[in-house]
Design goal:
This protein has 289 residues and is mainly alpha-helical. It contains twelve helices and no strands.
Amino acid sequence: MNLPVLAAAIAFWLAAWAFNEWLVRQKFESDVANTAARFAVPLLFGITILVLWEGIVRGFQVPSVLLPAPSMIWNKLINSLPTLGADFRQTFLKAVLIGYALGCGLGFAVAILIDRSPFLQKGLLPLGNFVSALPVIGIAPIMVMWFGFDWQSKVAVVVIMTFFPMLVNTVAGLGAASHMERDLMRTYAASWWQTLVKLRLPAAWPFIFNALKINSTLALIGAIVAEFFGTPIVGMGFRISTEVGRMNVDMVWAEIAVAAVAGSAFYGVVALIERAVTFWHPSIRGGRA
């Protein structure tokens, strides 16, 4: 056991925790300072977790095959950029983004059709809830058999995983406008399309963006898991399953780090677009994400 390293990591953790506790209670006069403090708190917390992780692994001399230190993972990541880049292109740029766009787009379009048809609303929504409960590990092998081993089968899995959350949330959002608001549109002799565009869709945007944010993480999970069941010799899921068998756990964690950063960035972009589109919503005007 390396007690000095462990003690230093714990001391840093306690000091950073105390500083964060002080920082979240401060109200600076400058808006720039308040914004910087708001970003500094999660950043410092993340750094603290990494330092504590490093200290525990080195202090207790944990075998790297069980849990590699962050410094070891970082070195592997830096030295494997071409491989990680190829995996990122195969999984994220091809499977995730294409499947996300298709799944969310189809879910939105079908929700509009369901809104126009009570028959579809009563018949398709229960079926959608059933399909959305299907496990991805059951769907993925079937999609690989149908669409082959390349990224097309992963796109199919992502479409299935993202379609129904978008469908259900959009249908719920289209019904969010109050009866008084709809009656007002009728008094103006507004058509169904005018009511949809000017009243019901704006009221549904928070629901739609909620689905978009949920799907931003589901899409990445679905694509990576689908690659466990058949893929060319490239992709995040392929690399994770292969390197685990070779006991190269540092490479596995490097892939996980890339996936985590990509998924967080994707979620953040969707959240920023939400703030720009739904700036009028109380949750945005109140300063909450």
